[in-house]
Amino acid sequence: MGDSDKVIKRTKSQSESFAKSKNAKQSIRLKRQPRLQRQDSIGAIEELVQCGICLEKLTDPKMLPCQHTFCLACLQSHLTAHRILIKQRSLDDQIAASKRPVAIKCPVCQKKVNLEKGMESLKELPKNLYIDSVLKLMDGNVSPISSKANDNRCVKCQIFSQQQEQCCQHCMQVFCNVCWNEHLSELESNLSILSKQVDESTVRLEHKLENFENRCEQLVESIKEATLHKIELIKMDEKRVLEDVASIKREGRVNYNSIHSKIQEMKDKLSSDSFGTNPGKVFSFINLHRETSRLLTLVNHYGEARVIFDPELCRLDQDTEGIYNDVEENETVNSSRTVNSLERFEVASQYYRNRSFVPNLVWKKCPRPANVGVPPWDNSLLYIAATDTHTVLILNRERRKLEGRLSSSEMLYPQGIAFSKKYKEIYISDKWKHCIHVFSKSGEYLRDMLVKGNGLGAVRSPDGLAMGPNEELIICDSGNDRIILVNCQTGEHLSTIGLVNNKTTLNMPTGVALSGDKIIVADTGNHRIKIFYLDGRKLHEFGALGRGKGQFRSAEVVAVDPSGFILVGDGGNARIQIFKPDGSVVKAFGGSSQGDDGFGWVSGIFVTPEMDIIAADSKKRCLRIF
């Protein structure tokens, strides 16, 4: 080998090495590019140039007025299938179709496209220039596949035929005779899938029927329960009205006996022959005449009173003076009591409606008050659960001065307050310590009660408290969604309120009050007020979630006035609402719209025997007395 050959060989080897090195660098650069990004870009382009009919790359792309683009051949095949379907219809349908302009629907959006010239209109459709440019970049300058306007092409094998009549009404595609039979076999094989879907739908329908019937049964139970509650209310109203009638009847008999005795006395006086001396006879005669006239007036008025029964309100009314005023002034005590018994609700309603509710006392800088209470042994004192200081403040309402406080190292978050008149004790619920603290009247810490229910566990986050008629302590066990009654001395569990079939119907009750033999519960989580008998039976309920009158957003606390009206601290709506015992709204005052003068969050409420309303506001840290 000569020198020239060696040089040529060495140069060729260097060139090959350089080429390999260049290719390797290019390969490394390609590998460094984000593979997912390249795949996403390629996938997006492929989807852009895909025909929505044949799902292949577009050829001769034509754009419909709705901006969707398809192959010209596919659109022609779509129109051909439409014509074949018309030929397969009845003669009347064909005649009607011939009178209408030729039209097809976009396979994607189903928008109607009129084709006045038939196949020629398809050819005249504008090209999608953007997609056509992308196709040229992908494949070079490739001319589109042309098809004859009058030819029919099988969608499966792409065979052309001049006399093709096989068109699937389901797929809107044209098939040749061979592919048509295969397509029919495929459709027939899908019947098993349809049969399976029908069977599954039958099972699903049965489940839906069962669920529907269960809901109907629940409705029936709710209707029966509501009807029983209304019957109980009607029976209570009946008992009350009958008692009023019996009272009226008894007073009528008393008045009759009184008048009758006066008549006998008058007879005795008139039958007496002794009129005294001659000057005294005239005065005696005048007195007898006056007494007789008064007696006759009583007789004339007796029984003229018309006591009317109002079936709508289920109460008694009187339209004239009568039995209630038939007795003399010294005998009117019982009659006034009866009038008050009949009219006390209307009088109290009018009283609340006419009040302006301007506070007589506003104590700001109150350390985040919770519930409040007035002890039965001293009406001038007010106990305030101060959560920030972990104490209970004692305020003298008359002197407007703090007189003391209840405190203990064991008390973490005082919330509810109740008093025992019999034992002279004060009960404080502690939400963080999950117990009830007991203090004496003098403020001495006595004990705590970690109340446990019968197999229901200890109390959790106790809130509102009340004292029952038999000195049983009523506790809002808000963490366990129930109301429990316990022995105030031992903490022994007596009964539970709010359970139906061992399931609670309450949701975080936070307020409780007593009205006679009924327990009023603020069911905060359900935004309702529920009324129960002491034995746990629910009497009725009212309220709902909302901002309107009679609606609540967290009915936080509840109190009952001497007339039986229910006052609710509507915390979320920053107001106090007043209701009749039947749940009808009488008055609402407060509200966030009043700005600084309004409530922030009503956290405590109490009504004194003098009808003073005491309201605590934990958000604005103040106390108001109306």
Q: Total domains, how many?
A: 4
CA-based gyration radius: 47 Å
- Spatial strand sequence of the major β-sheet: 11-38-37-36
Task: Tell me the total number of β-strands.
Answer: 38
Helix content: 25-40%
Low-confidence stretches: 28-36, 141-150, 319-342
Beta-strand residue percentage: 25-35%
For the record, give the distance between the C-alpha atoms at the N and C termini, rounded to a whole number.
124 Å
Number of helices: 9
Summed over residues and divided by their number, the pLDDT gives a mean of: 78
Outline, from the CA principal axes? elongated
Quaternary structure state of the chains depicted: single chain
Biggest sheet details: 4 strands, antiparallel
Q: What is the SS-derived class?
A: alpha+beta
